[in-house]
Amino acid sequence: MYAYVAGTTNNDINDEGSIACQINFLKQTNVDYDAYFIDTFSGLCQARFQLQKLLMIVKPGDMIDVMDVSNLTSNTRELCCLLNEIEDLQITIFSDELEMGMSNSREPYYVAKMLCRADMVTMMQQALNCKKMCHLTHQINVRKNKGNKQITQKDYEVYKMLMNSDYKTTQQATGLSRSTLYRLKKRIQQQ
């Protein structure tokens, strides 16, 4: 059996989020753990490198003891990934609150897994909607600014050539179509 602890670095035994409190709790269970894996959080970083290390060494049938199951993940995506790993590795995660694993009733496990997937689908749908909205906003801005293109020096040179000759000669000299030359002429004249 392995013990996993994740939390803040303060040494207050009364603070349930502290590592000291969690280690104290696990020692009171009088279980002889093969090893303790401890992830320390500081600031915004809540990476769980020790949990990943632990999941690489466990074997089917092993147990991981934690004080609080919520210490295993920070968001639904991580929870969904962890549930899949528990299923693949055939291990059990144990705490006073609950036992997550393959040996007990699978119904709560699958309900949790479905909730995680539903939440993940919702997040993906929101991200897709956000991308669509950004794309549409960009398209609207492009269409609004389409008529407000900047006229370059080259455009003025083509216009001057058009005013001194006919469309056919200007087309041959510039390689632009008649309609493009007409639009350029109108844009410059409207200024």
What are the main properties of this structure?
191 residues; alpha/beta; 5-stranded mixed β-sheet
Structure overview:
With 191 residues, the protein is α/β, with parallel strands linked by helices. The protein is built from 7 helices and 5 strands; from the N terminus they run E-H-E-H-E-H-E-E-H-H-H-H. The chain has a 5-stranded mixed sheet with strand order 2-1-3-4-5, sandwiched between helices. The termini are far apart. The mean pLDDT is 79.
In which order are the strands of the major sheet placed?
A: 2-1-3-4-5
Our count of helices gives: 7
> Which ranges are low-confidence, i.e. pLDDT below 50, for 5 or more consecutive residues?
none
Oligomeric category: single chain
Percentage beta strand = 5-15%
Helix-residue proportion: 55-70%
Largest β-sheet summary: 5 strands, mixed
- Give the termini distance in whole angstroms: 80 Å
The whole-angstrom Rg is 32 Å
Strand and helix order? EHEHEHEEHHHH
Global shape: rod-shaped
The helix-and-strand class reads: alpha/beta
The average pLDDT value, as a whole number, equals 79
Count of extended strands: 5
Topology:
Layout: E1 2-8, H1 19-28, E2 35-41, H2 49-57, E3 63-65, H3 76-89, E4 92-94, E5 99-100, H4 107-146, H5 153-164, H6 167-174, H7 178-190
Parallel strand pairs: 1-2, 1-3, 3-4
Antiparallel strand pairs: 4-5
